[in-house]
Amino acid sequence: MKSREQVTGYRETATVVQAASLPVPTPNRLDDRIIFENVSKFYGDVLGVNRVNLSIPAGVTGLVGPNGSGKTTLMNLMTGLIRPTEGRISVLGLPPNRPEELFRKVGYCTQFDSFPKGVTGFSFVYNTLRLHGLDDREAGRLTHEALQRVGMTEAAFRKVAGYSKGMRQRIRLAQSICHHPTVLVLDEPLNGLDPMARAESLELFQGLGREGLHVVISSHILHEVDKMADQVILMSSGYVVAEGQIHAVRTEVKEHPMQILVRCSDPNLLASRVFAQDHVVEAKLNDDGKGVLVRTRDADAFYLLLNQLVVKDNIALETVAPADDDVNSVYQYLIGSENKTI
Amino acid sequence: MTRLVRMRKTLAEQPWELWTRQIASILRMDLRKNFLSRRGVWIYLLAFAPVSLITLHAILDHSSSISIRTDTEVLAGIFQFFYLRFGIFFGCLGIFTWLFRGEIIEKSLHYYFLAPVKREVLLLGKFLGGLVTAVTIFGLGVLASFAVMYAHFGPVGQYYVFDGPGMGQLLAYLGVTALACIGYGSVFLALSLLMKNPVIPALLVLGWETFNPVFPTLVQRFSITYYLKQLCPVSIPAPGLMALFTVVSEPVSTVAAVLGPIVLASLVLVLACKLVRRLEISYVAE
User: Fold this and answer.
1) What pTM, to 2 d.p., does this model score?
2) Domain annotation covers residue B150
3) Which CATH class is domain A257-323?
4) A102 contacts in B (CB within 8 Å)?
5) Which of A130, A227, A328, A333 is most buried, by the most CB atoms less than 10 A from its CB?
6) Rounded Cα gap, residues A272 and A39, in angstroms
7) pLDDT tens per residue across span A211-226
8) Domain A4-251 has what CATH class?
């Protein structure tokens, strides 16, 4: 984290990669988005996040960044657990400082691994629903439903204090989804889960995203974010460094040529042809001799050229796939050099 | 439309039923924690300490000077000096400062903050939970002290309680206990929201409550003890300077004495509502 003094002037040099896929909100679209308008949060003199502008649409949004980059701060701001020092936040048109309305629509699975004393898994979820004002029967029904969704039915009546880390994670997840929220904020929800539970949770989040929910997930596991997120927000040192659909974000990172892997019938010929082009900076033959890894500054021009070569030189294509069009690569290009650890 | 009509309309539009259900849920969760917490054992000891002393007195003291009148005055002294100025004060300090501060220390406050509960409703629910706990524990302590004190007089004691002034005195003691819990409880709840360590300001409150009789009457009215002293059913014969702590120089009417702590508590709770509205979850700083 940087101090208030340290951040002065940072903004001028920082480049925010904003992909075209996240349009600037218009007033009539405020009610279906999570909006951050010039939001800053300082803990005393220490920076949490600074001048964040976001407009998060429905679907799964991955929040990625190294430790201390401001991911949890952003989520806590979104859910009103902390208040911004400056700026305005709106979650589907609701300000986060009105929990009585906000948490009818929002579920938040926090990273706080602490529970009210003596509580069982069932009562943890059930009491939340009673706080919503539901009667015993309805609260019981929704509790069973949520426990079933996270696979915690069998352990429901055991004390949470005796749960493993993964079970505690799942019971928190049950609590956040039990009231069928339209916005689901998940802070490192896959921590402590075994591979099977991870896969099930990923499927659950993707399913919720497909249903039209806003699912905002922070995670350290980049390939999992890649798998489930429709769009990503990359954070570093309290700033949003990139946002949007990962492909669009990658396209905007001009200083790193795109890597495209082509497997074809004549890799040598293809390599010699493409290397003659100005926009191609490297054409490397694969070790198995069946493919070429091309690094180009203009992917569109390369694809056009490839079409021409296929026709002209009679090259049979097997696969054409971007090799660094993923969260991991974008993360490395934009943040990796500043923060090696994630 | 007059302001009064508008206010009535606004009040009628509020979701009172939902708030009642939410307060009931908070009460259900908090009462169990308040009554059964191991860290609250000292509050039970505080509330029932006089009972053991009175029991010893009832068993061991058989001198001829013992009379109902003397013991009534002794009980009044125990109530005013022990319960009112010490036991209930520190008991409420322990119960009410822990309502939010305890949740912060145990990192579980976010559980309430993540529910669609108005912060004011949460505060009220938690305050009521603390109040029920404090009134039950100290009410039972006072009741037990009273019962033991008069039980050893046999039929005479029984006559004093049921056909004499005893029952009225008991009800007055219980009423004062409840008012003390309301007053002190609200102050300590607000203090716990205002600062991380409310013990030092609580000691200042204790000093204020103890020495406020030396101040002008107008200033005294901002003290909870000022009202409660005059509601105590038995006056204590205190010689010299001690009278300062037992006698009210300019008493108010009984109704005003009852309403005084309630109004004070209401004002403090309004302040507490503003504080809880601004409260952020920041466990790291604790």
Assistant:
1) 0.84
2) yes
3) alpha beta
4) 116
5) A130
6) 51
7) 889 999 998 777 778 8
8) alpha beta
